[in-house]
Amino acid sequence: MASAYLRAELECSICLNIYTAPVTLKCGHNFCRVCIARVMDTQEGSGGYSCPECRQKFQEWPALHRNITLNNIAKNFLSAEPDQEESGVLCTHCVDSPVPAVISCLFCEVSLCDKHLKVHNKGPEHILCDPTLSLESRKCSIHKKILEYYCTEDETCVCVSCTVIGKHKGHEMESLHEASGKKRNKMRNILQKLLIRREEMEGRVQSLQEHRRKVEEKAAGDTETVTVLFRDLRRHLEDLEKRVLSEISGKAERVSLSMSDMIQELEIKKDELSRKIHHLEDLCNMADPLTVLQESDTGDLCDTEDGDDRERHDKFLHDGGDVAGVSHTLHTLSDIIRGVNVYFYIQGAEDISLDVSTANNKLLISEDRKSASRTDIDQNRPDTPQRFPVWPQVLSSQSFSSGRHYWDVDVGGSDGWIVGMCYTSIERRGWGQSVIGNNKKSWGLVRSGNQYSVKHDNNKILLPADISSNRVRIYLDYEAGQISFYELCDPIRPLHTFTASFTEPLHAGLWGAEDISLDVSRKSASRTDIDQNRPDTPQRFLYYPQVLSSQSFSSGRHYWDVDVGGSDGWIVGMCYPSIERRGWQSVIGNNKKSWGLERSGNEYSVRHHSFRILLPADISKNRVRIDLDYEAGQISFYDLCDPIQPLHTFTASFTEPLHAGLCVWKGCIKICGGDQM
């Protein structure tokens, strides 16, 4: 009695079987993990979820907490239950001492041991089968005769009388052996599919386990590198050391936990497949055709969807264990500790110069091609496909298609600018898509008045703080797909990092309202009202005060710092040389070919492909850093405060060389360090 009560308590209310991998909902009710997951799947899209027992509502997919205690009780109960097959079927003729039967005769309705089987009638009407106590189930319920045929129309077993005088008269019949043979063939096909799927699932489990091992090994390697680096920097870097180590271990742990959960789910599904396979193998090997035919249809045994599992599995293998982003934080240590020469990935800023052929005719480019100023005097440059005809934008001469690079921009002379990066193929015309950050081809850091933001694909992210140092850095990691913006305060402060898969080389790009500069040697750009009368070439930005660097980067790791203290309206970033030169799409960050860090008044944001992400804080210093890791496909922006603060990282697959780009709404910004631009 107690055993029956315990069994009732251990049964899942969904499948009515003993719990398998039981989990608990917030309401306290328990279910098999597979059962409750299936129920929740059916409720998806209905506006919420509910417990099948108490109907308690959940707004989101409820957390399934594994009930280890209940799982152990269920396993112990199953192992303690007596095996029902041990009782067996006894020989009908062995009255004095019961002997287990080895076969049953359907004609005689008796079960026989080995001894009595030898003397049993061997006539064809004496049909033998495995020992059974339910001989009546093998006879026709109407005529009380042995079931010998299978009606294919009604899909049922019938006796001889049913075929002659019963309701199955005239129907197409098959012998039990013929019908069961066909069903066995069908089950063998299903069995083969299940075996293949189980093998595939085992392979996925192994690949995830191997990938997890590599992630843990890489995390351990990064941890060792970080430990050595911080040991050299001694006590004044202790806090930063803990933060970086925590980032590594945290990412590795999150990846490992996620993979462990998926492995557990796959193991449960694999066990379910094994159970189905074992069941089908037993049916395929069973000699009794009637049992095979009376088994419920097995066609749905193979209908198990695992598309989501495959997508999650592939996603883990491609990007689940990426802990390489920590390397970008390590790179900025050289700006935090003065006098300490830290070499991690890159050693110097790019020497970027502005490409006059891309500059808008309202942008005045200095002789050294390092500064851009907004002017009302048309520069009369030739109208070429490379030029931005609408917005005051300009791209760098250089582009980057690999590696890590950075350059600094002095934006102190302007309160309206965009600096960033863009593809060479960025739109040059139009009122929106050509602006850095307003398209999928550009990523920009924007200042508009006192507002700073980053922008990409016309998505704006406001930055939480002003850039107080007037200098920003743009960092590109091409392979990592990251464009980062930094404020070059003391210590350097990251602003934002865009992450993308870069498909083109990236150019630095400037959008200027007043003055913006790269450095003293073609390093600065200033907004001016005096038209510079430059020829209108395809490379020039026609409508927006933007300028690109002369240099472009198609590999490696690079960074550069920008002094943005002279402006509260600017964009710094990177772009492809194919960035649009006319129209709104030509602004850095307003297209797919550029990535920008933007200040607009007191609002900071990053932008790419017109998608703007506001940054949560002001840039406390007037210097930002742009980091490029071409191979990693990363452009990152940092605030060069103390310590350096990451602002945003763009990740992309770069397809063109990348130029540094500046956009100045007013005032002046200047590239003041980093890779030679």
TrEMBL record:
Signal peptide: none annotated. One of its GO terms (cellular component) is cytoplasm. SMART domains: BBC, BBOX, PRY, RING, SPRY. Residues 332-527, 523-677 form the B30.2/SPRY domain. Residues 369-381 have a biased composition (Basic and acidic residues). The keyword Aminoacyl-tRNA synthetase does not apply. GO terms for molecular function: zinc ion binding. Pfam families: PRY (PF13765), SPRY (PF00622), zf-B_box (PF00643), zf-C3HC4_4 (PF15227). Keywords: Coiled coil, Immunity, Innate immunity, Metal-binding, Zinc, Zinc-finger. Residues 369-388 are annotated as: Disordered. Residues 12-55 form the RING-type domain. It comes from the Eukaryota. Residues 184-218 form a coiled coil. GO terms for biological process: innate immune response. Residues 135-176 form the B box-type domain. InterPro entries: B30.2/SPRY, B30.2/SPRY_sf, Bbox_C, Butyrophylin_SPRY, ConA-like_dom_sf, E3_ubiq-ligase_TRIM/RNF, PRY, SPRY_dom. This is Uncharacterized protein.
